[in-house]
Every structure is written in structure tokens, then in C-alpha cells.
Amino acid sequence: MSFSHTAYENFFEMISNNNLNNNLNNILVITVTDRMCRHLSDNYVNYLSKKNNKKIINSPFVSFSNLKTKLWDLISLDAELNVKVLNQFQQQYIWEGLLYNHEVCSQMLYPNQCLKQLLQAWQYMLQWQGELDFKDWYLHKLVTEQIQIFIDLAKLFRTKCEQENWISSNQVLSEILDNIKNNKIKHNILDKILPNKFFWVRFEKTTPQVNNFIEILGNLGYQSEHIWPISFLENDMNHKKLRAFECIDPDDEISQILSWVMQDASLYENIGVVIPNLSSRRDELINAIEDIKYKQDLVSGFKDNHKSFPLYAITGGKKLSEYRIIRDILDLMYIPITKDKDIFRVLLSSPYLIDSDMNFSIRDKVDWELQQDLNFSHNNSGNIKLWIDFWSDFDLKNNKLDEKLDEKLDEKLDEKLDEKLDKNIKDILLTNLQDNKSWLADISWRKNNSVNISNISSINIWLERLYKLFEILGWPGNCVLSSDEHQVVAKFYEILQQMPMYEVVASSISYSDFLKLVTEQVSSCLFQPESEQQPKVTFFELLEADTIAFDALWVAGINDDIWPPKTKPNPFIPIIYQKQMQMPHASGERELDFALHIWHRLLQQSPVIMLSCVITDEQGLEKSPSELINAYGLVKADFCDKDSSLINQDYYYIFNNYFKNNLSDLSKISGDNKNLLNNIPDLDPDIISNAQIKELSHGVDIIQHQIDCPFKAFARYRLNIKPFRKPYEHLSASDRGQILHEILADFWGEHKSNKNLNNINHDIIENIINKILNSWNIKYPNILFAGILEIEKKRLYDLVIAWLDIEKDRPLFEVSGVEKVIKGEIAGLPILARIDRLDLSKNKKIIVDYKTGLSNKISSWFAQRPSAMQMPLYALLHKDTASIVYALVNKEKLGFQGISDLNTDINGVKIADKKNLSRLCSDMFSSSNFLEDKNINNWSELLSHWQEIANNAVLDFKNSKTDVNPVSSIKTCQYCDYKRLCRI
Fold first, then answer.
1. Do 627 and 561 meet the contact criterion of CB atoms below 8 Å apart?
2. Which pLDDT tens digit goes with each residue over 834-875?
3. Is the Cβ–Cβ distance between 909 and 896 less than 8 Å?
């Protein structure tokens, strides 16, 4: 029998003997988490089911949170306490209100992050039974301004709780202890719920509040014992198989783990895999597994002994809001109050609405027309009434089915057939929206204050309206839902039914605030659909695998930044106090102690232990293994070869190679099939004709992508796969660069020369900055809020002033063009580009391109496969260009870099002669200088060289050169949007 089945037998035998000797349950097993409680309870039931003479009546297992709840219910009933316990969401709502009403909130960049830290500080202070005032003289001196904010808010929260007769859930245990210590309850009442003896599972490292509770129970005569339930011979290491591996990077580590699972799955009944930060790598893991399963299915019909990936589960689940069926309805709940046309696009594209399965093609056409209609811009797309009218007008103009059917239908058709046809040609969703247009556009949705109806909570009003909205939309549709989708929808409705809990702390709220609360609840809910099948392999977060016995266990990510983790003290509690109280993440010593504790427990949970670390991260930067794994002697993981058969090959080639290499006796195959087998075509897209290529746009990007990696150009401009813009909680680097571009474009649009920069009016610069930022604030109101807006104004002002100081030191120049459009062709490919700025100096044309990053270097123009062809293409297309120049506008670096036909007297701009070209090329390649090999010694020859590179790139694109061949597997692939597609 496997270790996972026998590991708990001694523990369960002891429990059953204790219960057998007494008619009543004489013991209680307390677990730290609900998950641990369920796991031990299920195994206990299985254990007893094998012993016919023993039946389980009452489970002796209970989680500490459930025990605390039972005790509180008993004590509050006995003492007739009329106190309302606030859960975490109710507390968060109150704290959020206190924070947002505090004067300091307007100065915070990210108040939501601050709120999380404040709630954590409140929890720590209660669990470690600390004094909020920090009255000790040495602590009082350490109270900073931000710590004082926490003290003030905590006092306000306590005062409000006292006034409303509320109690925080974190205070419940303290109240229980207070009632027990001060004899406020009868001792025999505790005996009704508490047995004589407690077994505490995994309570060696816990809070002072819990330790105090265990101590008080001991003083009252209750027996307590800390116990480790898994039976394992720690000293007999000869029976333990333990190996330690190093992997190339996190992707390789996942590949090695999955290959090991496939190889050894038949040997073990229960395999565990611990992956730190599993929640952030969940999609990556699932994609890797599904990729393997797909490839297995590809050859399963031709290979009898192929191994299939075992049934698996990933603990913790993912956020409920990440499921498509929930994500769509969360967006659609904003329909009555939004002006964002993307919400209307969800209405048209979601498969979970009424008749979506029947009318998806028509709705796609409406969506397309919506995107082309300039009256519905991204930032001012009206309201739901305008959307419905837009859809209705489209339907009237384009749906001719009624007339055609009337002409073709015989007059003798019965009424039932007429009704059936009429039902098929009408979109029920559109009809529902038309019928309820006034209700959806009613002003009461958008009022700041909720509707005032006496004795009825506004939350209930919004719930009623929400359910009616669901009915109008027909959500979750009339398509057949999967089992997972049914469970997800049920969980969503369960959350909605719990929303009235906010009535305690919020008697009246607006609809937008109500939606915010719903979204917070749904986004914080981790959900894992249940399955009747028992998985053989389970993937865990670091702490989730605790106290679970496995036949084999792999622990990944054992690097020095995780084992032990870095310290993260809470900013609202004095650090010295956190270290003194041994609070979580307060000190390196505390983190090391906790990491060692977890480490030694994991090594006891299986007789087969596999350990791994990585030597580089996702960006190719070096990582160090933890000292914990170094002790076991690292070897290179070799369960799979990253560059072998199934990796980096198209499935077409896998299929082709499999037949050619594995069917040994082709004589058994008939003639036609044999010819077919020998002539399986490769995946080769059609060659683009000259007429077709003239219809393409984005010529500069096509050339650059083709040079960077031919597959990238193929995916983007042949398959037309457009990457999604990633959502940001703050301005991205490209956003900041674009803002600066617009400011400088406005400035040079008015000031055509650097002649009078010494006398520039600084108010003009401030006005331009305000104008541009205000336009961005309209686009991104949730990002450029008051605090960050002022910081951006100051940053941009300082940067622009510093940059103009650089510009005025240049030789006199005139600005002949700003955002100048240029057109042309490269090997028949049309090019349409926009130059940041065109200067005239000494009658020579200088193309200037602003760069706000630190990684831009002109040496990238002189590689055999240039990683920055934009400026060379500008020089080719704009005739008589004498110089191309990067304007480096960054607080870390201000100046120019460029190459020129003649001397420009601009610091950083080099003449294109043999010496400078040789040096610039050697910056890219330390060995050979291919510019010398090609005899490129001046500006004219350099332009010819760039023309050749551009022509070859276009010809390769036209001739369908689509191989996966990046210039650099690190630099080129790091930010590529098509990595999952090419599988590199």
C-alpha cells in the first residue's frame, strides 16, 4: 500500500481508540485551515470504512476558525451579548470610508494599496495583542507621520464600532479570552462544546493570541497536545529518495516537472508538486499541460505505448472574475451608467446572452460597424439608449430577411410556421433592450445618492434591478453550460445573495458603489470547480501542501529570493516593534526560522522528494539557489530536453516526422496512401502577389518584425493576430513617452527655431503640459487622479526645461516639420510613417526622433539584422536627408546620438566615415566587423546597405519566409506577444 494511504494510520488509530473508550467524543483535533480539516477528515472516514466494526458518528476534526465561531455563538448567547461581528468585507468598507475621508488620502498615489496595508496592520496588532498608541517612550519616538495616520484611523474605527455595537472579526478571540479569564461565563457551558483533550495540528508557529487561548484552556484543566499526524521515520534517511536539480529557467523547470510526472505517474498514486507563486503561474502551467496533452492526442492513434498525462488538479482556484462567463456579466452590469462603447461590444460578443448562439454573425457585423462609426469615439460613446438606437438602425437598414421571406412564402403557410420564421429572424436580446430602453437609461442609476425608499435598503433595490437586468440580457444564455460554468454561476449568485450583509455598515449607497462592492467580492473569491474524479497529481502553493502525505513530492523554486523570502515589514507599525513581537515578514531571522520550519515539514511528507531551483529568471538574469538545496548536491535536470522533438516544431512537422520515422514497414501501405505519406506538405503559406502587398499598411513594422523574427511578422500581418493592450493601474513607460512627444510637438509647432529659447516664457510650457495631461486625464480618469497628476506635471516641467537647455546649445536650426508624414515604397511595400521632427541646419535636413527610454542606442542600426530600422527607413524615404538623430530625453540621460553625412556640430552625432562606422559596428560585435567586410565607408554606402536589408526583408515577407528565427532568444522574445504561438 502507498505511503499516502498509510501515513496517517497511527494517528487515526489513536483517535479512534480514544473515541471507542468513551461513548461521547472525548477529543477534538484542531487544524489551522479549513482545507487541512477537510483533508484529514476525508482520510479518517476512508480509514474507518476499512474497519467494519468502527463507524464515524461525529467527526473529531474542526478548523480553528469554526471552533472560534462556535465558542463565540455559545458565549454571546450565554452572556446575552447584542454585538454584531463584522467580517473582512464589512471592515474593509468602513476602513475605506475612513481613509478616503482623511485629508491625507488626496496625497496618496495608490490609496487601494495603502488600504490593504492598513487592514494588515490592524490585523497584526490584534493578533499580537499590541497597544495601538505605542506608549513606550522608545516606540513613541518611532511613530512617523504615516504610522500616526494608522493610529488615528484605528481609533476612529474603534469609536465607530463602539457606537454601533460592532466588533471586528479579528477581535472575537480576544473577547472570548476576556470572558473566560474574567469568569463572565459558566464553566459547564464550555464543557458542552469542548472535550477533555485537544490535539493541535500545525500550531507550532502561530500568533500570541492563539497561544494565549491554548494556555488558558490548559489552566482550566483541558489537556492540549501539539501533534504531527504523518508517521515518518525521520532518522532512517536510507528509505528516503531525495534528489536536487537545477533548471535553466522557470519554463524549463515546468517542463522538467511535467516530464517527471509523465514518466513516474504509474509508480505513485498521489503526486504533489509545490510551486511558489503558483497563482501568478497558473495559466502558464495549464497551457504547458494542455500543450502536452494535445501533442499526445496527435500521435495517440498511431502509437500503442504512448503515455497520457494523468488527471491533475491545481489548488486555490483562480479568481471568480477571471472566468469568461463572470467577466462578461461584471462588464455588462455597468450598462446603465457607462459611456464606454467597449461595454457595448461585450453585449454584442458575449456567448452567454440570449440568442447568442443564433445571432453571433449578425452581432459581429454590428460590432464591426460600431468600430467604424466615428460618432462613437472611445471616450464619448453616449449611453445605452444611443447604443440600442445604433443597433436598431443597423437592423432596419441591413436585415432584409423579412421582405425576402414574405416574397417566397406561400400564402397557404399556417400561422405556426409564420411565428417560427418570425422568431428565427428577430434578435430577442435587441427586442428586450428596445422594450426596456427607458428603464435602462433612467437617471436614477447615475445619481450619486441612492434612491430613497423608506424601510427598504438600497442594496436590495440594486439587487432587484440587477436580477431584472440579467433577465433582459438572458444571462447566462441558452447555450449548454459545462459543469464548471454551472458551478461558477452558482457561486456568483451565492455572492450576490450575501450582498445584504453590507446593510449593517451601509444603509444607502449609489449604484456605482454597489457595483464596486460586488466586483471586490467576486475578484477576491478564489474558486475551484469540483470534480468527481480523484486527481493523481496536485499542484500546490507553498503553504497549501502543509500536512498532506504524498507518495512523491516535487518542491520547485528553491532559490535564495524565496527560501527564505525577503522581509516585507508593514509600513504602519514601527519596524523595531514588529521585530520584537516576531510579526510576519518583519526580519530576516524570522523569515529564515519560518522557512526552515516549513522546509523540515515538507521533507517529512513523502518518501520521495524532488527539489529544484532555476539558474536564470524569465528575463535571462542570473538567480542563485537557496542554501537549503545546495546541501543536497545539484545536478542538471534531464527529464526532458528543451530543444527536443516536440518543442519548437509545428504540429504539422510532428505529424510528418512521426510517420516517416516510426512506420517501419511502408510496404504494407497501399500505393495511393504510400504516395500521400511520402508527400505530406509542409505548412507553407501562399506567396503574396505584388497587387496584394500594395494593399498592406504598417510597412515600417512589417520590415522590422521580419528582421526581428520572420514568424513574428507572419503572426501579426499574415494571420492578423493583434496583441491586446495590457491593463495598467498606472501610466506605462510608453504612455509617458507619448505624453512627452505630444508636449514637444506642441512646443515646436509654435516655436520654429532655437533662436529665442533663452527668453522663453515658462508659463507657455506649463500651459502646454496642462493641456496635454488634461486630454489624457479624460482618456484615463482612474489613472491620472489628482495626486499622480500633480506629480506628472512637476516631472514633465522639469524634464522639458532641462531638455530645452540642451536644444539651445545646438547650432542655430529651424524646425521645418513636426509630426511630418512621409510616404514611399520599399520593394513594392507601401510605407506610411510619421517623423517626430524635421530640422534644417546649415541647409541640411536632420530627422529627429525622441527617445525617453535608457536602452536606445544607435549601434542597433549597424547590426547585420538591425533591431531598430525605423530611422534608417526614414533616411531612405525622405530624400536629401543628411542626418538621423535620436534625441534622448530622460532624466538620467539628456543629449543626442546619431549619424550624419557631414559635420553637424551636434555633440553625440558622428560623421559616417570609416573610423566611426567601424567603432559603432564593434559596439554590436566584438569579433568581426561586417561593415568593413562589405566595404561600407560613408553615408551613401550606408544608405545602400540599409536599402538592401529593407529590400530583403520585404522579399522574405512576400515569399512567406515564416520560420521561428529571432535575432536574440532573450531580447527579441522577452516582450514578444506571440511566444505562446511559436512555442519557443
1. no
2. 899 999 988 899 999 999 887 777 888 888 888 889 999 999
3. yes
